[in-house]
Amino acid sequence: MTTPENLINYVFKDKKLLDQAMTHSSCTTDIHKNYERLEFLGDRILGVGVAKMLYEKFPDEPEGSLSQRHVALVCKEAVSEVVKNLGLDKYIIIANEDAKDSVNVLCDVGEAIIAAICVDSNIENAIKFVQDNWEGLLEKYKNPPKDAKTTLQEVSWKKKLGNPTYEIIAKTGSEHLPVFTVEVKLAKEHKAQGKGTNKKLAEQAAAKEMLAKLGY
Questions:
Q1: Is 77 a catalytic residue?
Q2: Which end of the chain is less enclosed by CB atoms within 10 A, N or C?
Q3: What is the pTM of this model?
Q4: Which residue in 111, 120, 183, 203 is the catalytic one?
């Protein structure tokens, strides 16, 4: 029978840590039984693990390129992709089963698992887990990615349209599955909107829409 330990290739000495890492706050508000504290720690370890991997994999790249790669690999979409690829989404303990597909929830669980491994053993094992499971994503980013907001900034200056400004104009959905709508403006005549499960994603979506309107 497959278990989360089989999927992540790590056997916990303290099984309660694994349960905690998989448990959403909708099932318990006890901070020692849901994943929120672990998520906090895991987020930081993920950043270090990915940074170390990039530093070793791309010895000739400057800091700027490494930073762009890092942003792409630690974003919620990347973490949630790793969790789904491992098959951990099936084992998430949450009140609303539909929320198992939420990028936010999947990302939180991924970060919590990283932290649980660290607490159960050491940071070296946690970083090894990151490098083993994030290395496959490097193929997606053979060249350092440039996010839509950065591209839009460059285009707007090239066209002498000034700085893009972003504003949240709506927030819908539930507390656990929010949807943000952001509007981006350039000069007075250019406007575009985008949606996402958090402010950053909505801003990126709005920037992409604006770039499409500008022909990029």
A1: no
A2: N
A3: 0.70
A4: 111
